[in-house]
């Protein structure tokens, strides 16, 4: 029964950790790619209004973020699955949760 509790807990934890790590990795990667693309563009051309400058930078960052997702999304997912699998098994079988600990007799 203890083994079943550990496996079910590890499965639920794996799904949650994979989702959270993947979303965090894609958000951070997309933000970095967008910031680098916007920064590489340089200052806005003279005569461009503040709103047009903001929209131009936004579109550059958005395109760079989408390109990051298309190019590196699989690798981020693969890394998140590996880290989540190892982490969830280590947490569950290591006794980090009270219901996964072996009871003393």
Task: Tell me what you see in this structure.
With 105 residues, the chain is mainly alpha-helical. The chain has one domain (2-100). The chain is built from 2 helices and no strands. The two termini are 16 Å apart.
SSE order and pairing:
Blueprint (H helix, E strand, L loop, with lengths): L1 H40 L8 H44 L12
Helix pairs in contact: 1-2
The main sheet comes to: none
Beta-strand content bin: under 5%
SSE order, one letter for each helix or strand: HH
| Total count of helical runs of at least 4 residues | 2
> What is the arithmetic mean of pLDDT?
91
Key phrases:
80% helix; mainly alpha; single chain; 105 residues
Quick structural summary:
The chain is 80% helix and 0% strand. By secondary structure, it is mostly helical.
């Amino acid at each position: 029964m203890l083994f079943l509790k550990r496996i079910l807990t590890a499965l639920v934890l794996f799904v949650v950790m994979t989702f959270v790590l993947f979303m965090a990795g894609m958000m951070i990667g997309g933000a970095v790619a967008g910031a680098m693309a916007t920064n590489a563009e340089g200052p806005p051309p003279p005569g461009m209004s503040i709103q047009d400058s903001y929209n131009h930078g936004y579109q550059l960052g958005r395109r760079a973020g989408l390109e990051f997702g298309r190019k590196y999304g699989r690798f981020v997912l693969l890394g998140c699955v590996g880290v989540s699998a190892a982490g969830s098994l280590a947490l569950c079988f290591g006794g980090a949760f009270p219901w996964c600990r072996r009871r003393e007799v």
